[in-house]
Amino acid sequence: xxxxxxxxxxxxxxxxxxxxxxxxxxxxxxxxxxxxxxxxxxxxxxxxxxxxxxxxxxxxxxxxxxxxxxxxxxxxxxxxxxxxxxxxxxxxxxxxxxxxxxxxxxxxxxxxxxxxxxxxxxxxxxxxxxxxxxxxxxxxxxxxxxxxxxxxxxxxxxxxxxxxxxxxxxxxxxxxxxxxxxxxxxxxxxxxxxxxxx
Length: 198
Prior knowledge:
- By secondary structure, the protein is an all-alpha fold.
- It has four helices and no strands.
- The longest helix is centred in the middle third of the chain and has 71 residues, at 39-109.
- Residues 90-141 form a coiled coil.
């Protein structure tokens, strides 16, 4: 009986030894293993995010450059169309100048004094040369706009300045032709008035 009383006590000791022997080596075994670093995955994620941001910035920059280039190209085409209209107006004014020259010749044959009209026409011819060079300069400036390097604002400003100067020179040419026509009409009316008096 003495052993029966000691048996539960022995069983608890054996169970404690078994549990202790399995827990203690496991504890030492867990302490020998290096814990995983939590910073490494975070750093990798940070690098991935930074790479994505850099790719996004590069894509945005290329897209912006493409949009800027398209816009500058559109601006160039619009201003080239304006120059085409200015060239057409210049051609029409040239035809008017030729008609004035023919009219001066006809009136000279009739004996009309057209010296003032000829002087105004000579001044108009000077304005014609100025208008032609202004239109050519404007075309050169618009062609010189580089769509890959210039900004939209710079392109618009350069084109506006070029077209503005060409337009002003064309208007000056037109005014000079109008003055020549006035003098021509005045000379013709003087001749008609003189012939009516006789």
